Amino acid sequence: MNGYQRIADMTYSYNADIGLSYSSPARGVWNIVHIGTLVPESHQIFVCPTSCLRGVVLTTAEMGAMDQMSTITVGEDNILEGNMEEELHDGVVKILSSLEKKPRMVMVFTSCIHHFLAVNYQRVYKILRKEYPDIDFVDCYMDPIMRRTSPPDPSLRRQITRVLRPLEQDSRSVNFIGNEFMTGENSDMYMHLVNQGMKVRDITRCSSYDEYLEMGSSCANITFHKAAAKAGRDLEVRIHQKWLPVRSAYDYDVIDADMKRVCQALNIPAPDADEIRKEREKTEAAAAEVCALLNGTPVSVDYTAVDEPLLFTLWLKRHGFTVESCFIENFTEDKEVFEALQKELPDLKVWSSLNWNMRRAERGHEGKITAIGQKAAYFNDTNHFVNVVESGDMYGYRGIRRMMELLKEAYLEEKDMRKLVQIKGWGCHCG
After folding, report:
1. 179 neighbors 395 (Cβ within 8 angstroms)
2. Fold match between domain 40-152 and domain 170-273
């Protein structure tokens, strides 16, 4: 392959968003359809031109969830006749009348054309709410023209929580907000909260809409991903639940500080020094074991696999791993991490998987390489890879040790990369 930059030659202001981009066959990252389908007893309605509808329909069909979505086609006649609002209202009414069971929540996704024509869709939703008082209508957006100022993914993670209403707060209940995967034994935060007698609520654990609405009674919301920040901030302002953002980090001090801050906010004991020491020792031992196994085999890291790929790369380097490359589109992590990598790993190859030149890149790698993430696996053409997106269910020391297990497995066992990376929405259990 060619077209990379050495991190030593780069500036912190790097951003690969240069316009025309290449979309690789690595399709494991979730999109708005997958996220929306997490809401139990809900229905999604996409209101778009035919070409835009193709992608969301195919995604829903792949999930086997066609009964959870409907479409309204916007055509040239709607633009010429100026009846976009009527088309939106009448289309939703027709869809609801055709459903065997009325949904508890309806997500209506408008598209770019509605912004261009300044359609008053809020007026339509107001009418629909009067006509169907037993259904929660949520305005959602499939508008890639807004991807720089208000990307659809973070926007939807906020919008699906807009139905949560202020309830009497339970000081022994907390929400995980913005997660795509159910957390459990691979998460320090989940295990510690449960061990302290806290009830952890999460959309991934809800089997009914009423159970989902009960999240409004929790005293705080914990977010693990940057894409969930809008949801956390909105809930704090709107229904006065504490927002406790934590970083899905590969930095022991950050992990400990975040855990302590959350515990203080919830008035529960934080892990003591002895417990932290034992966790660190077990994590260091796990890293040393896998590092010795790889014995210098190069590793390639992918930004779709972990939230903070530069910090993860730095952690791997400091634990003896040979990290050759990193696929990343922009630097959003602390500048100190970037500068540390420039000094400690100056020859690190930084690739943009979205650059249009990647369409013609010669994929492959001389010798064995182990990839962490689908895009790193695809562009290095390797069957030795960790198949995970957005950190999966991993957080904290337990999360790091689980990642080491997956890295060990990836090194020892081959996967069918070409088949796996084409599955849209890795690990999506909804539908």
Report:
1. no
2. yes
> Mind listing the pLDDT tens digit for each residue in 299-328?
999 999 999 999 999 999 999 999 999 999
Query: What is the Cα–Cα distance from 203 to 30, expressed in whole angstroms?
Result: 15
Would you give the end-to-end CA distance of the chain in angstroms?
38
Q: Tell me: the pLDDT tens digits for 100-137? A: 999 999 999 988 887 877 788 899 999 999 999 999 99
What is the Cα–Cα distance from 110 to 85, expressed in whole angstroms?
11
Cα maximum dimension of the chain:
71
φ, ψ of residue 372 to 5 degrees: the values are -115, 100
C-alpha–C-alpha distance, residues 98 and 429, integer Å:
26
DSSP for 169-227 reads -EEEEEEEES-SS---TTBHHHHHHHHTTPEEEEGGG--SHHHHHGGGGEEEEEE-SGG
* CATH no. for 40-152: 3.40.50.1980
Both structure tokens of 382? 């390797």
Helices (H), 267-308: 273-294
- Could you tell me how many helices (H) and strands (E) the chain has, helices first? 17, 14
Q: How far apart are CA 313 and CA 311, in angstroms?
A: 5
Each domain of the chain, given as residue ranges in start order, spans 5-22+288-420, 40-152, 170-273
Supply the DSSP symbol for 160. T
pLDDT in tens, 169-196: 999 999 999 999 999 999 999 999 999 9
The β-bridge partners of 385 are 371
Q: At residue 26, what are phi and psi to the nearest 5 degrees?
A: -75, 110
So what's the pLDDT on residue 11?
92
Does domain 170-273 sit in CATH 3.40.50.1980? yes
* pLDDT band at residue 431 using 50, 70 and 90 as cut-offs: very low
The C-alpha atoms of residue 113 and residue 101 are separated, in whole angstroms, by 30
User: Does the reported pTM lie above 0.85?
Assistant: yes
HSE of 262, CA atoms in CB hemisphere, 13 A: 29
Q: How many CB atoms lie within 10 A of CB 266?
A: 21
As a residue count, the chain comes to 431
